[in-house]
Amino acid sequence: MKKLLLTTAILATIGFQQPALAHGDEKHEGQHTEAHASAPKTVSVAADAQGALTEIQAGMKTISTQISENKHDAMHDEIEKIEASIKLLKEKSALEGDKKTRLEASLKQLSAQLGKVHSAADAKDVEKTKAEFKKAEGALKLVESNAK
Asked: What is the pLDDT of residues 21-75, one digit of tens each?
């Protein structure tokens, strides 16, 4: 039993000393600069829930354009902007009760789907990126209907 506890403590200590990886074991050498690593998190500039929804819609249009132009590397920043707007929409929404719950669930679904788009784009898998983005567009329609 003591060996198990000691081993667990050692593994926990070693695990906490390992740097966090952005995308599993994917190497990003030479792709990011020091300025990017220290850049502030993307923040939504919308003042209210409607503005946040408008930013999400605009970001989705931008990603659609990036996909059609095969600019998968550019999607990362746009997805971060959308994520910031999703967070703001959750916070600023004036909906209550079941309506708020449905909106939050649809925002969570959109966020998860954008994560899949991001992963597919990082893998440079054009067809999967397109397929996952179509699902994200469906999730956006659900957000739009629940935001009313």
From this structure: 444 444 443 333 333 433 444 555 677 889 899 999 999 999 999 999 988 888 9
Identify the helix (H) or strand (E) that includes residue 136.
Answer: helix 126-146
How far is Cα 77 from Cα 29, in angstroms, rounded to an integer? 18
> Is 147 in contact with 52 (CB distance < 8 Å)?
no
Could you tell me the CA-to-CA distances from 144 to 54, 74, 99, 103, 104 in Å, in that order? 10, 25, 12, 9, 12
In a domain, residue 124? The reply is yes
For residue 137, tell me if it sits in a domain.
yes
The answer to whether residue 4 is domain-embedded is no
Alpha-carbon distance of 131 to 101, in angstroms, equals 27
CATH code, domain with 58: 1.20.120.290
Q: Where does residue 122 fall: left (phi above 0), alpha (psi -120 to 50 degrees), or beta otherwise?
A: alpha
